[in-house]
Amino acid sequence: MNTKEYIAARAAKELKNGDIVNLGIGIPTLVADYIPADVQVFLHSENGILGVGPTPDDENIDQDLVNAGKLPVTVLEGASFFDSASSFAMIRGGHVSVSILGVLQIDAKGRIANWAVPGKSVLGVGGAMDLLEGSKKVIVTTMHTTNQGASKIVKDLSYPITSERNVDLIITDLAVFEVRKDGLHLIELAPGVSLEEVQKKTDAPFHVDESLKQDNEVTA
User: Fold this and answer.
1) For 16-30, how does the pLDDT look when each residue is reduced to its tens digit (9 = 90+)?
2) Catalytic: 46?
3) d(CA 71, CA 65)
4) What pLDDT score was predicted for residue 202?
């Protein structure tokens, strides 16, 4: 399991029986392969599928069967297909239980930027804005830092904000944060990761759960 797969597998643990789940582009698409066998969820894709299955192997790719990111998918027995307008009506109507999204940045309030990079062309805003406003719970999955080593969890966003609605949970290769009324709360460290490393690589201020404090001397 590589780092991105680890993040996806950790996100899959947050899903519950009966959830209708939308998976965003990037790391979130990998979640489909790590849903626990004893948990039944219904994966939704905004291009018009309810009942997406695991990633197909090379021998079973159907070029006409793709998700919103144009990646090949499988469908489970009982899956349904519909137009984009109906798909977004499901989102805007509050029928999506959980959305798992990728991000460019997350700020200290849990708000995200994930649809545009200044100076680069934008094909469209996609479904992230609707998913943030319409989903009951939003989880973001991301590497903790950029390829250049800059923190992706920042005090203030420098990229265009996607929505004023904050996300509920942040899962990175280093840690898991809950977003609460008073800000970010570090609730879990990835295996082999120290609290000190998370502090060094996180620009935004955050609270540390009591169970993670070392000798009651470390504060964030």
Assistant:
1) 999 999 999 999 999
2) yes
3) 8
4) 98
pLDDT tens column, 80-91: 999 999 999 999
Q: Which of 5, 14, 46, 77 is catalytic?
A: 46
How far apart CA 110 and CA 137 sit, in angstroms, is: 13
Domains of the chain: 3-212 (3.40.1080.10)
Has residue 102 got a pLDDT over 50? Answer: yes
Three-state SS for 62? coil
pLDDT digit string, tens, across residues 130-154:
999 999 999 999 999 999 999 999 9
- The rounded Cα 107 to chain-centroid distance in angstroms is 15
Nearest alpha-carbon partner for 19 in 75, 95, 106, 125: 95
What SS3 class is residue 9? Answer: helix
The DSSP-derived string for 153-216 is B-SS-SSPPS-SSPPSEEE-SSEEEEEETTEEEEEEE-TT--HHHHHHT--S--EE-GGG-STT
pTM for the model: 0.93
Q: 3-state class of 47 per DSSP?
A: coil
